[in-house]
Write a structure and sequence with these properties.
Length: 76
């Protein structure tokens, strides 16, 4: 999915965090528009992955679609 998401028009970036023991985690993907999000959600290969997640891997998950108004960053 990592390579595939990058092919979606309007894709900006993504990052994932996983617990090394439980493998629980989060993936955050950034897109330019709601249309780009829809294209990703409806991509045929992504649909297969979604179904596998529901039937074999997850008992619960959550999606949030949010707009980033500002981003701040600091590094030492």
């Amino acid at each position: 999915m990592e390579k595939l998401v990058k092919t979606i028009k309007g894709y900006i970036s993504h990052h994932s965090q996983r617990d090394s023991d439980t493998r629980e985690g989060i993936t955050v993907s950034y897109f330019e528009s709601l249309e780009s999000i829809k294209q990703w959600r409806e991509h045929p290969e992504h649909r297969v992955s979604q179904e596998l997640g529901r039937t074999h891997f997850y008992t619960w998950y959550e999606f949030q679609i949010v707009r980033v108004e500002r981003k701040y960053e600091w590094a030492k």
